[in-house]
Amino acid sequence: MGSGQVVQGHCDPAFRGVREVFEAQFAQGRNLGASVAVFAGGRPVVDLWGGIADARTGRVWERDTPCLAFSCTKAVTAAAALLLAERGEVALDRPVSGWWPEFGAHGKEEITGEHLLTHRAGLPAFARPVSAEEAADPAAMADLLAGQAPEWAPGDGHGYHALTYGWLAGEIVRRTAGMPVGEFVRREFTPGLWIGTPPEITAKAARLSATGRPPAGATDPQPDERSGADLLTRLAEAYLDPQSLLNRALHNPSASYNKPVVLQGGWPAAGMVATSRDLAAFYDALIGGRILRKETLAEGIRERVRGADRVLLVESAFGLGFMRPAMTFMTPGAGKATAFGHTGAGGGIGLGDPDKELAVAFIPNQMGGGMAGDRRSYELVKTAYAALS
């Protein structure tokens, strides 16, 4: 089947390059199924999808096929916390123990909401194995983290809280709003972002398919864009070492992300199921001031930390929950100063740029080789920026 027959949907002529790149990725065998969406100037200009949603059955990817977006979830959870802070319901610069007393144990009494949102709490991994069934209970996950001592002095550097982030930042929402993150997001933002899927959404979701290639590092772009073979070696060693922070942060809870217990469990760091259309619309609403006030968003995306990540080992940079351009969030030159968002382990991305009035989302079901986005998303984002000029 030719790539032109695989891809369906709408593309503004000015953004035809995005369609061409998307089609080429299918033609090259780099996508099994996927969707991509772009908003520019508040207007939907790209809404494309194609390929196979389930390799076992041959089920095709349709217009409303949602897919797990992995850590793209974190930006949505962060926005929920920021909305509550904007309303004056929680003070992110104050100690968490003020609204979560149990959390102050084991040297964590000075950790603030900002620490939770910027990966500086020192709690990147659970101290004991956690099952997927346990992970569906946010109160139990919060209790586990409250009872742990931090891996490093809170605030002394940052390290990617790959999964625990969701139950830390998510506790801001759960305790303040009185409901899980997924319920709050559907009520306040859009019903199309599922953090915890009902059975009917679970059934129509795309099924993830592995590439058979072990993760090579935090991002998929070519090694010459990183700092050399030594870093790649250290990443590979850390990924395989069961005692490393990287391994422990990524693999506990450990479960197949295709299983209903995970999709329905509402993991607020990596469990969101969505279409690219709905994820891009979320970013368009963010930059348009329809979810947060523009001044709140400006503070949320203001860079708070940058440098060597204690967990990922490569450079990462964060605002309050949002990634900023770095090795974990590869962004073309036009977006280096202004883009924000979050990548996902499957190769996807959600990105907003308030200065360029651009929102982009890409969600595939063929897993990439990195933990935080890959070459496919970078190519699509780069082409979308190019179309603006």
TrEMBL record:
Keywords: Hydrolase. Transmembrane segments: none annotated. Residues 208-227 are annotated as: Disordered. Residues 19-377 form the Beta-lactamase-related domain. It comes from the Bacteria. GO terms for molecular function: hydrolase activity. This is Serine hydrolase domain-containing protein. The lineage of its organism: Bacteria, Bacillati, Actinomycetota, Actinomycetes, Streptosporangiales.
